[in-house]
Amino acid sequence: DAMVIQNPRYQVTQFGKPVTLSCSQTLNHNVMYWYQQKSSQAPKLLFHYYDKDFNNEADTPDNFQSRRPNTSFCFLDIRSPGLGDAAMYLCATSSETGGTDTQYFGPGTRLTVL
Amino acid sequence: GQNIDQPTEMTATEGAIVQINCTYQTSGFNGLFWYQQHAGEAPTFLSYNVLDGLEEKGRFSSFLSRSKGYSYLLLKELQMKDSASYLCAVTDSNYQLIWGAGTKLIIKP
């Protein structure tokens, strides 16, 4: 089955210790997104890629970086996690950008910062 | 500013019908999505409306009125597995997707 996969499902890190979250997709979609979602809040878009074109949201902190080495994989790097970065991180894909295409989400990675 | 309003929480009884409302104030409109999100899991797509009217899909229906900036998701014959959060999201004139915070639906036997 075509899908969006995120690893790990649960990640624990120390305050200030870099962490990388990964996402892969078998849908062959052009667009990949990273969202941050805190409890009972709307998903907050951090970045998206259209193919290799990177789009950073204006209010995404510099502490967050992303890489997309190929169509299938995308990584979220948090350089110095703070307590406020504890959240669910969702990866999503869509065929095209533009906000009218359905987004397909991975199961998410829940990040805990100690 | 851009805003999506949904009730924070609703409670309904198994077998009943529930309507979850969403009102939006955005810079333009290019479609409205409903997603279902079970606790601790990722959102899954339910429906997409871009024209006024009712779209029916099994037990779930979604309605849109663009002139009123209003949508609702109607769930019939509620089942315990329908306990989840329901997220409304609107595509604005810049084709950015604006998300609501979601409505937590609690189903009681």
Tell me which oligomeric state these chains represent.
Answer: heterodimer
Q: Helicity of chain B, in percent? A: under 10%
Average pLDDT for all residues of chain A: 92
Helicity of chain A, as a percent range: under 10%
Kindly describe this structure:
The complex is a heterodimer of chains A (114) and B (109). By secondary structure, chain A is mostly beta strands. Chain A is built from no helices and eleven strands. In chain A, the strands form two sheets. In chain A, strands 2, 4, 5, 6, 9, 10 and 11 form a seven-stranded mixed beta sheet that branches. In chain A, a hairpin with a 6-residue loop joins β4 (31-37) and β5 (44-50). The model of chain A has no long low-confidence stretch (mean pLDDT 92). Chain B has 109 residues and is an all-beta fold. Chain B has strands at 3-5, 9-13, 18-25, 32-37, 44-49, 53-57, 60-65, 70-75, 84-91, 97-99, 103-108. Chain B is globular, with a radius of gyration of 13 Å. The model of chain B has no long low-confidence stretch (mean pLDDT 94). Classes of the chains: A mainly beta (114), B mainly beta (109).
Summary tags:
heterodimer; A: 114 residues; four-stranded antiparallel β-sheet; 51% strand; B: 109 residues; five-stranded antiparallel β-sheet; 0% helix
